[in-house]
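Could you help me review a protein record that somebody else here produced? Do not assume that whoever made the record got everything right. The record follows directly below this note.
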Amino acid sequence: MWRSRLWTARRSWTRAPPPPYSPPVEPREPARHAVSRNARIAAVLCGVVLVLGGAFAAGFLLGGEDDTSSGEGELDRAVAPLTGLEVTGEAVARLDRPALAAKIDNSEAAVPQTGLEDADIVYEIRVEGVTRFLAVFHSAEVGDIGPIRSARTSDPALLAALNTPLFANSGGNPGVLTALQSADAFNVGDSITPDSYYRSPEREAPHNLYAKSADLWALAPVGSRPPNPQFSYLAGEEPAAGEAAAGATTSDADFEVAYVWDDRRGGWARYEYGLPQTDESGRQLAPTNVVVLDVQYSQSQADATSPEALTVGSGSAMVFVGGRVVSGTWARDDPAAPFELIAADGSTIRLQPGTTWISLVDPGSAAVLDEQTAQQLLGS
């Protein structure tokens, strides 16, 4: 069933002072008055000490110092909206920026890709005979990303839920570009900001276009906002729901993808055509969660040969979390809303905090992977 595939690698801020103070000359007092005055001074000093000491003690007993420290600490931690993970220190500042979504190639000549391992969310969408990724970057430190490919009419409805993200792409046909003009996203494609992109001499066009993420984020308009949360997450050590699952598989006549639970990494190791899918460093991609959504594909109005994923509506869903799977449904009434993941009992399916890959598949083309095949893949 699993077919072999060629994998390639790519290696970047006076006035005059007042006269001195001269105290008035007072007549010398008898010695007994001097003693009395000294006593009064001593009494005042004792009172000051008592007041200050009492204030210190009250502050200590009431935890005043602890409250201040705690308040400062709270400024140094936050939860990333697209992963549910707590971030601390300098990484907190990154959460104020908008999301950066990028259309990334997944053809044979495009692997291994650059930057996918740093994406908070990745959508996998069918195009002509292959799949293509809409990778969403936000909380992680990201370098170059690519290879960047063209936008499709499936993209605007997915971008709309991300609170006006930046969108990196290599353009598109006239119909797609028209759709992008009305999309709730800020287009930073290579035809608009070419200096933010470059072509690698190590690959052939069109599979060699890369984006410099820092340059793209620098283009974010004043007032840009961070993305809204997309999922609900498990708390602490709360276990995942569902039944044990070795993995997931999705396929059609042109491509095959599998995810196998890797307990050591705490993620779902990804395979294409029976081979581990790696990033540029050679590390296998293994998202924390895998969400498989049955969606309808229609013919794109922008291109009769291009399929368009219809992601407003409802359908079946399989949600793979922590070595387990929950079967349920997804629902989405508006492009600006996130996907609702609903279990059979009507409860919300919650994910493990971490990265999430979402496969938008034709109904009936996904299944739970059997244990034997999962073990064979892990050994490959």
About this structure: The two ends are 14 Å apart (CA to CA). The longest strand covers residues 313-321. The first helix runs from residue 31 to 61. The domain at 243-378 is CATH 3.50.90.10 (YerB-like fold).
